[in-house]
Amino acid sequence: MVAMFAKVAAVFGAGAFCTFAATAISSVLLVVFWAVPAHAINHWYEVPRLVAIMCLYAFIPAGMFGFLCGILGRSYLLIRTRPAAAGILLLETSVVGGFLGSLFPLLFLAMRWEPRGDWLSWKGFVFSAAVGFFTALSYAVVFRESLNRERSVSSSGASEPC
Q1: Each residue's pLDDT tens digit, 90-109
Q2: Low-confidence ranges of the chain (pLDDT < 70)
Q3: What is the pLDDT of residue 100?
Q4: 105 to each of 45, 96, 113, 141, 142, how far by Cα in Å?
Q5: How far apart (Å, rounded) are the C-alpha atoms in residues 142 and 134?
Q6: Around Cβ 49, how many Cβ atoms within 10 Å?
Q7: CB-based contacts of 20: which residues, under 8 Å, 6+ apart?
Q8: What is the pLDDT of residue 19?
Q9: If I label 37, which of 5, 47, 56, 149 is the partner at 20 to 30 A Cα–Cα?
Q10: CA atoms within 13 A on the CB side of 48
């Protein structure tokens, strides 16, 4: 019972982490790749303020989708049976995050949020995949020890009754 609660807590913890990480990463990437080239800022010291403002706008769509993808990604890691080396685990987590992130424009379409044209272009898919990739990579780096501990328990064949 305790092991099952720990797994559920890990899944929702991943969702919470990805909520804030996806919001922050998408805000930084939006500022760096759209606001700075468009000369929307006059001085470099305006960048942190603009990132903070973008976090407010990005929190609902990016946070909600980051939460769902964090839950799906962590669930995938829990049901994955074969153990992997740390580097392979980082790569696999990032690729799964990139794939899940690339589905974000479809959420825009399903929720009928505007503007649809920007997000349904190839730039929107690439941007969303990059956010998913870096969010999953940051999760895997921050929680590497717990992921490795789970891998070692699952590879030794020891299992706790639920």
Answers
A1: 888 899 999 999 988 888 78
A2: 38, 81-84, 114-119, 148-162
A3: 93
A4: 31, 16, 10, 26, 27
A5: 12
A6: 11
A7: 63, 66
A8: 95
A9: 56
A10: 1
Residues 101 and 133: beta-carbon distance below 8 Å? yes
Q: How far apart are CA 15 and CA 12, in angstroms?
A: 5
Residue 162: the pLDDT is 36
CA distance 149 to 101: 26
In angstroms, the CA 124 to CA 128 distance is 6
The pair of structure tokens assigned to 43 is 């001085």
Report field, pTM of the whole predicted structure over 0.85 = no
- Identity of the residue numbered 103: L
Residues in the chain: 162
Distance CA 80, CA 61 (A): 28
Cβ pair 102, 135 in contact under 8 A: no
Query: In the chain, where are the structural domains located?
Result: 2-156
Cα–Cα distance list, 75 to 25, 28, 69 (Å): 22, 27, 10
Contact 104, 65 (CB under 8 A): yes
pLDDT at 88: 83
88 exposure class (CB count in 10 Å sphere: 0-12, 13-18, 19+): exposed
